[in-house]
Design brief:
This is Cyclin-B1-2-like. With 54 residues, the protein is mainly alpha-helical. It has a domain of 33 residues. Helix content is 85%, strand content 0%. It has three helices and no strands. It is elongated and about 40 Å long. The mean pLDDT is 77.
């Protein structure tokens, strides 16, 4: 299923879309714990939604 999504994204948005998506996910996952320690709860929820949007 995941591979099918990647293929559809490649056809629709171009080959760099999935690379950018993976990079964004890596960056956000590194900051996930830092954000949760220093920010308010609603901002943390928003970031988690973005991370888990896949």
């Amino acid at each position: 299923m995941e591979e099918k999504k990647r293929m559809i994204n490649n056809v629709t948005y171009g080959s760099t879309f999935n690379l950018r998506k993976d990079l964004d996910k890596q960056i956000l996952s590194r900051w996930k714990h830092v954000i949760s320690l220093g920010c308010n709860f609603s901002l943390v929820q928003e970031v988690l939604v973005v991370i888990n949007r896949d």
